[in-house]
Amino acid sequence: MNTQSSSAQDNSHKPKKTHKSEVLDKDLKKISRIAAVNISVRRTLISPGLAILFIAVAALFANSQTGNHANGIIIIIAAALGAYMAINIGANDVANNVGPAVGAKALTLGGALVIAVIFESSGALIAGGDVVSTISKGIIDPALVPDSTTFIWIMMAALLSAGLWLNLATFLGAPVSTTHSIVGGVMGAGIAAVGFSAVNWPTMSKIAASWIISPLLGGVIAAGFLAVLTAKIINKDNKIKAAQTWVPLLVAIMAAAFSSYLVMKGLKKIWQPGVTFVLGTGAFVFITTHALMRPVIRRQSIGLENRNQSLRILFKAPLICSAALLSFAHGANDVANAIGPLAAILYSVQSGDIATKVAIPLWVMLIGMGGISLGLFLYGPRLIRMVGEQITKLNTMRAFCVSLSAALTVIVASGLGLPVSSTHIAVGAVFGVGFYREFHSARNKRRRQEILAQDHPQHSAHGASKPRKLVRRKHFLTIILAWVITVPSAALLSALIYYGLILIP
Fold first, then answer.
1. Which among 224, 205, 228 has a CA at the least distance from the CA of 216?
2. 98-114, pLDDT tens digit by residue?
3. Most exposed among 135, 163, 179, 202, judged by the fewest C-beta atoms under 10 Å?
4. Residue 271 domain-assigned?
5. Is 146 buried (19+), middle (13-18) or exposed (0-12) by CB count in 10 A?
6. How many CB atoms are closer than 10 A to CB 306?
7. Are 118 and 377 contacting, i.e. CB atoms less than 8 angstroms apart?
């Protein structure tokens, strides 16, 4: 009896222990959620704090470099605005270069940030150029600007409006063109200061045309390369043997494209090569790379299983290299969107004159380089995930097509004299890959149903199922809308800021 009663007592305690453990688990989950919220709140507060600190340091640094100038306060404010613009360039624009590699799992987010910072900074310092145009893309005629003071207010309004627009676009998760942002800023302030006659409307019409040309070219070229990969490698019975033939060829095309891209775009501020040299360089790099990659790919493919997952390994290293090279070229080109207006303001304050081209002091370049790097670390991950993961699913082969398209499209457009946006090209290429996947998936379904109808006519009455949506339409519409309104939004904001500036006594 005692044994039974003791066992009954033991059994009676078991539910209580289970109940206590469940309560403990719930409490631990609550504590974990609270800890996660605390970490999130800290990050939310730390990032703006570090950004504000950098802007303040840039302003103090500018003050120490210019001395006790009579209009030193203008230089200090301009340096702060340039730092703010550079942070937003890093937050929004750099995602296009490394996002596909992150989405394809070729790079971790941390690795992508490190590579982007190193190569963006290298591109800005090595090939950012000693001289930049004071008025981006020749949007307004400097001869129509009445005096240097008006010019300074135009540049300040352009910097602030472009920075604010990029800030908003990053917050909304829309990758937009930093070049178009500063172009809209210069145009809006120029119209407010001088009138519509100051704007170079033929140039603006070309830029407007690039809203369609850039993403369309990028998407078509990326989809074309993915179609080649699908037909020549993925759909083959012996995928590894096909890869040994085609992967060296595709990597050689990529190497030739990037060498030409870097010569034409990445180094254009310090050297202007001729067409013959660019073509010769591309041909030499193509032949050399193809010869070197054939034995490399053959060794890498030894022991790989005959499946698509194995093919992705062969594209990982080329994809990482392409992310690095795109970051270098971006740093060389787009740092001018932040430091160009700043250098122009500095020149006008010190000389009292307006120049179409100005020299870039090293301290100004450091502000641009530091701002882009900081913006990338603080705010870049959100846009990196957007481009690499949330538009469509990428693997190394698809991401390779995106990166290759980005380089080739810029080369083709430059050869045709078309102004294009690297942001629009890269994101358009991601869309192109996604829409091609939808098309290919739907076509394969139709083909399977045709075969099924021939073999089993009784099943044909069921009809076709709805095609899979492999591109998120929400992101597609948001990004397209952001592209269309970038120039007019930045222009309107810049005009309002200019009117506010000239009211300052």
1. 224
2. 999 999 999 999 999 99
3. 202
4. no
5. exposed
6. 13
7. no
